[in-house]
Amino acid sequence: MKKTSQFRRIIQSPELDFIMEAHNGLSAKIVEESGFKGIWASGLSISASLGVRDNNEASWTQVLEVLEFMSDSTSIPILVDGDTGYGNFNNARRLLQKLEQRQIAGVCIEDKLFPKTNSFLNDNAQSLAQIEEFSGKIKAMKDTQQDDDFTVVARVEAFIAGLGLKEAVKRAEAYRQAGADAILMHSKRSDISEIEAFMKEWADRHPVIIVPTKYYSTPTQRFRDLGVHAVIWANHNLRASIDAMQRISRKIYQDSSIAEAEGSVASLDEVFRLQNTNELHQAEKKYLPPPSRTIGDLK
Ligand code: SPV
Ligand code: MG
């Protein structure tokens, strides 16, 4: 099944599904091997892994290049964090075209202004896009997609901006009517109260995706009970890798030796396996001429 159609199933099936963060070809492959049905190409994680901030400091084509590696190394669908779409409707629809060309399954755009700021930062600097402008962006994207199953998710930042339930519902409804395939309702509270209030008011009008980074202690069953369609675990591969890299770098620096590090890192064989090195060995046998004799052999 096409990646786009696989992702459609995730969004439309009433049962709760989970989408796991990745930020490069390797982490995307690890997510797939872990059993997840979908990958979240997180803007925060991709920018952090490139050593820059989550403020559109990495250009959209630089992000596209990362996405290409992620898509090539996996067979499950990728939902891309498209931030604000990198500009107006025209930039957003061009982004969508380029994503489709790379077999990306869907893109999520948020109703903020370019350049965006991470939702967990700058309490007072989360300016939202006008509803009409953002709705036009969604329409332009839906009109542009070639594959009917490509998914456009509209992310509502009303709660993030400190606006209440009424504004959150108003925006979600406008984006649904503009053609969004699902709504991502974001919240930075440490409890699920905002999401709960939204889900009750929303009454399953359209699929809803959530990102429980801050309300992480909420039991997953609660999301099911509220009728959430998909959960994005948005940044744990990035955070796990930071922790692992900091520990091993410190250890090797302190020891001036790698002797004690060997047992606590992945084996080289595991690196080669993840790179699918075997396939190249097989292909070499098939396509390369037999190894030429060396000068030594000729003597
Ligand atoms: C991301 O992973 O980049 C997101 C989710 O947009 S969050 O960081 O929670 O806003
Ligand atoms: Mg993001």
From TrEMBL:
The keyword Mitochondrion does not apply. InterPro entries: ICL/PEPM (IPR039556), PEnolPyrv_PMutase_core (IPR012698), Pyrv/PenolPyrv_kinase-like_dom (IPR015813), Pyrv_kinase-like_dom_sf (IPR040442). The keyword Repeat does not apply. Belongs to the isocitrate lyase/PEP mutase superfamily. PEP mutase family. It comes from Paenibacillus alvei TS-15. Keywords: Isomerase, Pyruvate. This is phosphoenolpyruvate mutase. It comes from the Bacteria. Its EC number is 5.4.2.9.
